[in-house]
Recover the amino acids of this structure.
């Protein structure tokens, strides 16, 4: 299928390259994204008013797409605040401290637990469950909050989601597009997921330890309050962030410290039995967190419980929107690469268009020679490009189609190329490099998503390079 690339495609690509360059240089990209939306809007509508209104409408679109994540983060943060100020979190994490005694054990321990949980229930609910419990332990033994976020992010949104061996959403999409059985793609992905996971996590851990030793490590904390609250030493009681500890009887603390994890464990069982995943699973976690927040606040504050429940929720939402504030303009720009462009600016792209990002991926596949090595490189680049919309899943069907195209020309390697495109798309777009896609881990840990993306960039690029080379030998 021939894809006609318009000037809009090239302008969008130019802004992507500029944005990535700024991210590498640790500069803010919000203004550039706004300019990009303005430029694309003007090219699509050919009116000043259309391009200007497109900025605001794209912000609304991005907020709608992200609102579920904003809410779950805000609610979990609100719940965690009341657990911190009452000291319940101290009781909850005490049994885990005997296992996570060093920064290294904390990094790998959190990562492996996150990976196993994400295989069954996908990463976003796993971040809320695991981060709230294990993060204080990790910080206490010397692992920076940003290091904990890296572990949860790389193992959950990277390793677990790119293989997706239990729920099998990703391999089904790519396998269907490539005309292959799901089992064939899953089998072919095993060595690639292992190589990508090992190279990326080992590299990230080594770079973290090196920078901490050399004094060049950046914590990336969103605020000083985040740093204080992570180790459970202080915590705000109301929206004004007054640092006051609320005293509960020791027996009640112990009872709640057991009951709360059991409630979340019941959520996990319910997810499995009711086949809940994605938004439904996140909603179950969020609803449970609200009920815990209300119950603990009433027990702790008694006569002031009604007012303090509202205060905790306000603080949670303040934190959530503070974290998401700089992300929404960037997400708004990248969402234009998919279906948002047509919704906001009308039918401007050609009839055969699958969205700006996917059109660029198809065009790339049609402009390179067809052989095993080039096929592997092309599938990695194509997968990474389609992952730039921050979904990870929107472009993996395209990766399957392109893998089928290359495999037909080469005569072999369809399953390996399909799996490679899947791995690249999900590692880039599923939540390890795109700032708004890795928001859950960043927000739970109280760190900047942009700093987390920067820390992940080099390890993920090295991992993709090594994995692509391995795929060349497997095709």
């Amino acid at each position: 299928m021939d894809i006609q690339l318009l000037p809009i495609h090239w302008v969008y690509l130019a802004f992507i390259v500029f944005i990535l360059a700024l991210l590498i240089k640790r500069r803010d990209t919000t203004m550039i994204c706004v300019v990009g939306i303005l430029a694309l809007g003007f090219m699509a509508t050919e009116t000043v008013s259309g391009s200007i209104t497109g900025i605001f409408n794209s912000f609304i679109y991005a907020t709608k797409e992200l609102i579920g994540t904003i809410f779950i983060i805000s609610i979990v943060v609100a719940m965690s605040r009341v657990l911190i100020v009452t000291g319940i979190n101290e009781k909850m994490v005490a049994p885990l401290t005997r296992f996570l005694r060093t920064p290294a054990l904390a990094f790998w321990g959190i990562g492996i637990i996150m990976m196993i949980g994400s295989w069954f229930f996908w990463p976003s609910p796993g971040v809320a469950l695991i981060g709230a419990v294990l993060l204080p332990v990790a910080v206490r033994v010397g692992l920076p909050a940003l290091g904990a976020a890296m572990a949860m992010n790389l193992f959950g949104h990277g390793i677990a989601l790119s293989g997706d061996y239990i729920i099998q959403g990703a391999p089904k999409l790519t396998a269907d597009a490539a005309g292959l059985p799901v089992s064939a793609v899953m089998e072919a992905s095993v060595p690639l997921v292992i190589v990508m996971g090992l190279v990326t996590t080992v590299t990230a851990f080594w770079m973290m330890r090196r920078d901490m030793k050399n004094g060049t490590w950046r914590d990336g904390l969103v605020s000083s309050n985040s740093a204080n609250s992570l180790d459970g030493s202080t915590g705000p009681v109301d929206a004004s962030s007054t640092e006051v500890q609320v005293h509960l009887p020791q027996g009640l603390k112990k009872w709640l410290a057991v009951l709360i994890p059991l409630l979340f464990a019941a959520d996990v069982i319910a997810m499995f039995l009711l086949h809940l995943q994605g938004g439904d699973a996140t909603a179950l976690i969020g609803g449970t967190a609200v009920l815990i927040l209300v119950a603990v606040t009433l027990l702790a504050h008694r006569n002031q419980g009604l007012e303090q429940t509202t205060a905790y929720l306000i603080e949670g939402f303040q934190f959530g929107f503070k974290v998401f504030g700089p992300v929404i303009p960037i997400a708004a720009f990248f969402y234009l690469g998919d279906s948002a462009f047509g919704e906001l600016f009308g039918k401007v792209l050609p009839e055969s268009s699958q969205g700006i990002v996917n059109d660029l991926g198809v065009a790339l596949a049609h402009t390179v020679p067809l052989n095993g090595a080039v096929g592997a490189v092309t599938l990695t680049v194509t997968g990474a490009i389609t992952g730039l919309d921050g979904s990870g899943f929107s472009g993996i069907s395209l990766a399957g189609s392109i893998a089928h195209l290359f495999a037909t020309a080469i005569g072999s390697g369809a399953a390996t190329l399909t799996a490679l495109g899947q791995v690249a798309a999900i590692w880039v777009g599923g939540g390890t490099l795109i700032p708004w896609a890795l928001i859950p881990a960043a927000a739970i840990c109280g760190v900047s998503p942009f700093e987390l993306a920067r820390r992940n960039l080099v390890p993920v690029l090295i991992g993709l390079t090594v994995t692509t080379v391995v795929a060349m030998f497997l095709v």
Observations:
- Residues 224-243 have pLDDT under 50 and may be disordered.
- The CA atoms of residues 48 and 156 lie 43 Å apart.
